Amino acid sequence: MKKSTNKSKPLFIFYLLVAYVFVQFGWWSYLMVQQTNEIHAQKAQLIVLKLTEASQIFSEQQKLEMDLHRRWWMISGEGSVFLVLMILGISRVQKTFKAQTALANLQKNFLLSVTHELKSPIASAKLLLQTLHKRDLPKEQQKEIISNAIDDADRLDNLVENILLATNIENNLFVLHKEKINFSDLLEELVQKLSTLYKTHTFEKNSAPEIFFSADKMALSSIVLNLVENAVKYSPEKSTIFIVLVQKGNQIIFSVKDEGVGISDTEKEKIFNKFYRVGNENTRKTKGTGLGLYIVKNLVDQHSGIISVKNNFPKGSILEVTFDV
Q: Over the stretch 280-313, which tens digit does the pLDDT of each residue have?
């Protein structure tokens, strides 16, 4: 309860200041109108005192009335412009404040996620190495432990690579080094690696042979790995991840289908935002940093490709990337 109060305090102060500004604006408007009316009344008295002929008094009073109306319009015009600018300014400040608050929450969640993502493989690798160090195990068990420790090291390596890549993308430091790549062979290597890394899922690959594409090999690998890892995170264990690579005319289409929770229409545009994670609190308990799809979207854009999100009936999602050859 205390945390919620602390978060709402700056917003309360902001609204208090807004209320004060509107009260002051109203008071300023009242004083301006009152002062204008008083000046008009004094001028009207002077006209009566100075002039003797009724026609002259009437003529001057008409001029005075016209001047009064002109001043009223001037006050109304200036006040309206000021009011519109003030409302626009307040609206912009409010949106910025909410956006900064949302970003701060996303960054906080990101730090918590990264901490968890780092601690888990480190703790696992440490335990495996301690077991290997303290016990005299058969050779087969040693190989299994070493293999598991390598898998944990790979998870750490992928996480660090994603963080560095996201930082370089955000700071416009990432530069593509394109070369002609056999996408089919690269996908075969990556799927084998993923099958070893994620033994909880089944991977079904459907790839046409000898599909070549001019791309940055590291970036293309990152696109594949992040899309598949995203599917693994948001689909149940023992489910199948379908990986498809085809070429249709001058287009290469790569897609990843899962049988997971799916992505609602309202979230389909948001999932590519930095730190954003899909779903309700239950699905957000899955591992992840919210960087994977952000990285994918940026790398696809840099290759002049298009990424789209589709529903995988009866359940799950399809993330499809299209490149022009």
A: 444 445 566 678 888 999 999 999 999 999 887 8
pLDDT < 70: residue spans in the chain: 1-8, 48, 51-54, 57, 106, 109-114, 116, 278-289
Nearest to 15 by CA among 26, 23, 102: 23
pLDDT tens digit sequence for 18-33: 888 888 888 888 888 8
Distance CA 240, CA 101 (A): 38
Strand-strand pairing, 240-248 and 212-216: unpaired
Closest to 194 (Cα-Cα) out of 233, 161, 164: 233
- Please state whether 24 falls in left (phi above 0), alpha (psi between -120 and 50) or beta: alpha
* SS3 state of residue 324: strand
pTM of the model: 0.63
| DSSP class per residue in 135-182 | S---HHHHHHHHHHHHHHHHHHHHHHHHHHHHHHHHTT-----EEEEE
